[in-house]
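Regression test case RT-17, inverse folding.

Input:
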């Protein structure tokens, strides 16, 4: 068997990979998520995802390593994970009633051969206007604190904040399943592995 390894502790990504029937183990990456201002959001997300996958692949002898990174952009400004509750409230107030773009980069690296596939997907998301009470209650729940842009579309409150999604829904959750699946199958073909051998 050729093991599949997820270089992320994200519960959303674990759930999505299980949803499409993949079996894998988790080895978190130690790569810092550094945004380079001269790079586009898509390029940043893809680079960080590839760095994560490469770092974990360097620590294992065999297997396909999956890396991912999500970047939320509003008016050309990147909204990362909030550092404090006040920061989360600030981000949510900025997003209220407006459209932003979610970019998720993903990468697959075969540890044995070094062959890789990567990509980035963007999705436009529009929030309805949010009340001060809604923002405060969501932040009190603690849910925004580990998420880029301070919200999760799959959360109770995050779900009702979103008015419209234009593009891949799963990309907003944190992993573009359709695009990933296509590239995963291509990588398997590149290294001569059948899907049932993973």
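Golden output:
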């Amino acid at each position: 068997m050729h093991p599949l390894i997820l270089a992320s502790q994200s519960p959303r990504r674990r759930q999505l990979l299980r949803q499409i029937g993949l079996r894998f183990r988790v080895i978190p990456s130690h790569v810092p998520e550094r945004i380079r201002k001269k790079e586009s959001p898509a390029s940043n997300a893809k680079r960080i995802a590839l760095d994560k996958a490469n770092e974990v692949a360097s620590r294992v002898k065999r297997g396909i390593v999956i890396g991912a990174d999500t970047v939320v952009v509003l008016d050309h400004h990147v909204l990362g994970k909030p550092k404090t509750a006040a920061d989360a409230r600030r981000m949510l107030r900025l997003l209220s009633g407006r459209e932003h773009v979610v970019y998720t980069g993903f990468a697959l690296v075969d540890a044995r051969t070094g062959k890789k596939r990567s990509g980035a997907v963007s999705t436009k998301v529009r929030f309805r206007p949010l009340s001060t009470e809604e923002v405060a209650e969501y932040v009190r729940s603690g849910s925004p604190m580990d998420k880029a842009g301070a919200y999760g579309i799959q959360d109770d409150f995050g779900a009702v904040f979103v008015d419209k999604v234009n593009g891949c829904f799963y990309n907003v959750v944190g992993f573009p399943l359709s695009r990933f699946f296509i590239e995963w199958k291509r990588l398997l073909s590149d290294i001569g592995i059948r899907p049932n051998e993973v």
